[in-house]
Write a structure and sequence with these properties.
Blueprint lengths: L6 H10 L5 E5 L6 H12 L4 E6 L11 H11 L6 E6 L7 H8 L5 E7 L7 H6 L4 E5 L5 H8 L5 H10 L13 H24 L4 H13 L7 H10 L6 H13 L3 E4 L1 E3 L4 E2 L5 E4 L2 H7 L8 H15 L3 E7 L2 E9 L2 E8 L5 H12 L7 E5 L8 E2 L2 E5 H6 L4
Parallel strand pairs: 1-4, 1-5, 2-3, 3-4, 7-10, 12-13, 13-15
Antiparallel strand pairs: 6-9, 7-8, 10-11, 11-12, 14-15
Helix pairs in contact: 1-2, 3-4, 7-12, 8-12, 9-11, 10-11
């Protein structure tokens, strides 16, 4: 099967090799981690011995613990050569970190693994690596990659297709007009995440509640809520659930990398609030799949989600901003760089204009400030150093 190289990821991983640290590729299922690992294996074959272990291959069913995994690696090592140990879905091996902790310290050995849930990056595992690992998060296709995979030029239609179907890489093999098969594929990915990565791994008892929570987050993407507010909402619908249970289940959803939690950030006090978060799906198609029976595509919510994903893909830590009771959609921080972003479907109305531009004007520092919109006349707007740009332009910018 033809593989399309997402060069940014393979180049990033190669630059991290040879530094005595394991490289961990994370992301939700079918985001493209396995493909990146396979392409990396093909590139590295010219430089040394590649030991490739796919934990979803039935032939590797005997690798149930770190002892069997370590023995497999040991039997494949070639002395006098560079050895690259590449393991796909490593979380399937019990206590895998014990084997990796040993091999990452050996001269001439590089370790790259993929995993699909956050349990493999818990504080315990971080401690067991003693800081000797580097995480590379693999996202679904961004808009620029979407155009490359589908062989499309940037256009209103292409952008509409991206917002509707998202960026699961395999979807490009299914014709856009075959909506039923594409929808079924999204459903199969959701079911796999739901059953394999949450229900089974987390020993979830109330499966119906977990499913309802995922759909609630999809329908309320970008809105602020807490475990307490969800518990009160469910109680009104005659489903009594404690806030603690809601919190545990929300953590489980986030642990699969299917959903991201976005904290609130006090711009004036430069501190992070611990309650009342926002949530966004890491793939727009999965989000839209869960909302398909309730309403047509909610373009404003999806647009905000697309901008969030762009900021994350560009290496920013992303927060929701708060300043003097006003909300800033996104405060993006990357090292010493900071960016403020408001997202609006249009800014032609006076009230909308004042909300989007006025909120940004309250911020008195000199960091970049953007209003991202689908308004066709956005290029004519200039106000107080705030840059207004079209959503397509923003998502295609490579040097944010």
């Amino acid at each position: 099967m033809e593989r399309i190289n997402r060069n940014g990821y393979t180049a990033l991983v190669r630059n991290l090799l040879g530094k005595g640290e394991a490289v961990v590729l994370t992301g939700h299922r079918r985001a493209g981690k396995s493909c990146i690992l396979e392409l990396l294996a093909a590139e590295l074959a010219a430089d040394g011995q590649v030991i490739y272990i796919d934990m979803e291959d039935p032939e590797n069913a005997d690798l149930v613990s770190f002892r069997e995994l370590s023995e497999r690696i040991k039997s494949s090592i070639r002395e006098g050569q560079r050895n690259y140990v590449l393991i796909d879905e490593v979380q399937e091996v019990a206590e895998f970190e014990k084997a990796l902790r040993y091999w990452v310290k050996q001269d001439g050995v590089d370790v790259v693994v993929t995993g699909s849930n956050a349990a493999m990056l818990s504080s315990d595992i971080a401690n067991s690596f003693a800081g000797r690992y580097h995480r590379v998060h693999v996202s679904s296709l961004d808009y620029q990659e979407f155009l490359m995979f589908y062989g499309m030029e940037d256009s209103d239609n292409a952008f509409s297709q991206y917002l509707r179907w998202g960026g699961l890489p395999f979807l490009y093999r299914i014709p856009l007009e075959d909506e039923r098969t594409r929808t079924d594929y999204l459903g199969s990915i959701y079911d796999t995440i739901f059953v394999k990565d949450i229900v089974r791994r987390k020993n979830v008892r109330n499966v119906s509640l977990l499913d309802n929570l995922a759909r609630f987050v999809a329908d309320n993407s970008g809105k602020v809520f807490s475990a307490n507010s969800i518990a009160k909402y469910l109680k009104g619908g005659e489903m009594a659930v404690s806030a603690n249970t809601i919190g545990e289940y929300m953590d489980a959803l986030c642990d699969t990398y299917m959903i991201d939690r976005v904290k609130r950030y006090d711009i004036k006090g430069k501190s992070v609030f611990e309650q009342q978060d926002k949530y966004y799906f890491e793939d727009l198609g999965l989000r839209n799949y869960l909302c398909r029976d309730k309403r047509s595509l909610d373009i404003e919510k999806v647009l905000e989600g697309a901008v969030y994903l762009k900021l994350r893909r560009s290496g920013y830590d992303v927060y929701m901003g708060q300043l003097n009771g006003k909300e800033i959609d996104f405060v993006a921080r990357r090292g010493d760089d900071v960016m403020y972003v408001q997202v609006a479907l249009q800014v032609t109305g006076e009230d909308t204009y004042e909300r989007e531009f006025g909120n940004l004007k309250l911020i008195k520092d000199n960091y970049p400030k953007y209003v991202v919109t689908m308004d066709p006349n956005v290029g004519l707007i200039h106000d107080s150093g705030i840059e207004a740009c079209s959503a397509r332009q923003f998502l295609l910018t490579s040097n944010l």
